[in-house]
Amino acid sequence: MTDSTTAHGNDVLSVRDLRVWYGTERGAVRAVDGVDFDLRPGETLGLVGESGCGKSTLGRGVLGLLPASATAAGEVRFRGENLVALSEKELQGRRGPEIGLIFQEPMTRLNPLMRISQHFEETLRVHEPGIDKQEVRLRSLEVLRRMGIPPTRYRNYPHEFSGGMRQRLMIALTLVLRPAFIVADEPTTALDVLVEAQIIRILHDLRHNFGTAMLLITHNLGIVAEACDRVAVMYAGHIVEEGDAKQVFSEPAHPYTRELLRSTISLRTTGLHYIPGAPPDLVEPPTGCTFHPRCPDAMKVCADLDPVETRPSSQQRVACWLHGPEDRIPDGGREPLARQEISVADEA
Q: Which stretches of the chain are assigned E, i.e. beta strand?
């Protein structure tokens, strides 16, 4: 999408035309290709899509946490300041006290040789060198209390906690610095449904008690329905649909969004549905709409021209030729496109 939602003067984060490339021997991998979105204080935007669509790269691109082989361009304005233009040293000063990241695998992020108290002390002293030991303890215990972890566990080691409690510890380590914006990358991965529900409740409390803006990256559409105000659907480096979560779930405008929703399992599921094929090669993506080789509604125009953003409603935007604009579709462009059926053997 090249256009974006209307910017608000009080946005915590405003992303415009963000692009991230990875250098490879075959050429540039366009992992994020022209992404726009805004986030207001206390708002949560869910980012969904299949593996390989660029979700985690987008989250790390926003924070400037990219490997040396990656190049970023565009604008990521945090409180008016373009993070993409900052040096690594300047970014380090913003990460933690202003912008934070919740990792998806807490056991690999917590030092097994350090007590939880030492993790908090290290985090706070790096970003607030003048803080005293008593203040470290008070702030750490307060945020642990909010996560439902008793003070008696403060000096435990990471291995003494369950998977769900370790994830709460990761959230607490992020919140102790009181950031205004957080990227939560798959925060409920590998957790059982009861612990998952607890994490969702904690994320909900963050919005209302701290006013924290959050980009929530997940494969779980149920979490988005429960915890997010808006949802952005990502495919092949592009956001193909974005809008109010309830509206997108009840009236999906893009065929990819519709197919994702059909692929979820509920108590009413009688048969499994899947999207044939796989996300495209981002070194040599398809011409036109990148989803057209897999799209059940593909038309001739979809294979020839990049889709133009339209607005099915005031709170929803979509990049799909099914929604026009009519004056940009050439004669015969709406004729169905013959799509080769993909077998399971072909996918393998």
A: 13-24, 27-39, 44-48, 70-78, 81-82, 99-102, 181-185, 213-217, 230-235, 238-244, 309-313, 316-319
